Hints:
Blueprint lengths: L10 H12 L7 H7 L5 E2 L3 E7 L6 E7 L2 E6 L6 E6 L5 E6 L6 E7 L2 E6 L4 E6 L5 E6 L8 E3 L4 E4 L4 E5 L6 E6 L1 E2 L2 E2 L3 E7 L2 E6 L4 E6 L5 E6 L3 H5 L15 E7 L4 E6 L4 E6 L3
Parallel strand pairs: 1-20
Antiparallel strand pairs: 2-23, 3-4, 4-5, 5-6, 7-8, 8-9, 9-10, 11-12, 12-13, 13-14, 15-16, 17-18, 18-19, 19-20, 21-22, 22-23
Amino acid sequence: MKMCSDRRISLPIIMLLLAACNNNPVKTTSSETAETNSGVPAVMSYELVNIYPHDPTAFTEGLQFVNGYLYESCGEYGVSDIRKTELVSGKVLQKQKMEKQYFGEGLTVLNGKIYQLTYKEKTGFIYDQASLKPIKKFRFNTAEGWGMTNDGKNILFDDGTNTIYYLDTTSLQVVKQLSVNDEHGPVNNINELEFIKGYLYANQWQTDNILKIDTGTGRVVARADLSDLRQKLGIAPFPPANETAPDVLNGIAYDAATNRIFITGKFWPKLAEVKLDN
């Protein structure tokens, strides 16, 4: 074949043509693949590892795993609370109810204290981790409060937009903001958050996606589709049939000691241990 010996053809083309002449495929290197897919989040597969019971009356808004126990914030006006739960049995060991005018949202545990947001009340609460007793309130200036986590130094929360806010734990003032974007632009409806190995993992409201976010750039670097998890757990598809039926996927907790990730949803009767890229 004449073209296979034409010396005017560039080296990459010669490699392709030689492969064609030898009937061997050209292998693409990982760096070439990364360059080709620049800006497009990787597909993050998941594996269901274990299933645990979960209170089906818990409208889960915040979830964290600390020292062998789950700490959870549950929403809805009139019934909101924070609670400490046993993983294997799902038994609620401690509970602190909120006043009826508050709708509990995201929660995080840091240095012996529990921090919690409210939905539209612009009020945050701080509790003693051991007793769950309220210590103080604080104000935040976003229109709404949604998800919450911490990076070991600052408290991170979101408000349903594509913005992540960093709060100083002493002043409880915003010291930094991070805008979340993917290949299409701003990613809104960022909900429950978890900080895992330097990345933010986030539920996206009204989807069955979990997003992995680079905390340096705000880029979504990976995306997991858990739409078939409901079937595996015996949970009805979204949207819910009624107001008390299992609702959206919401709640991510990480056990750093054993490298486990737990997820659940609002009014879900089950909590799943999953393997993502941890």
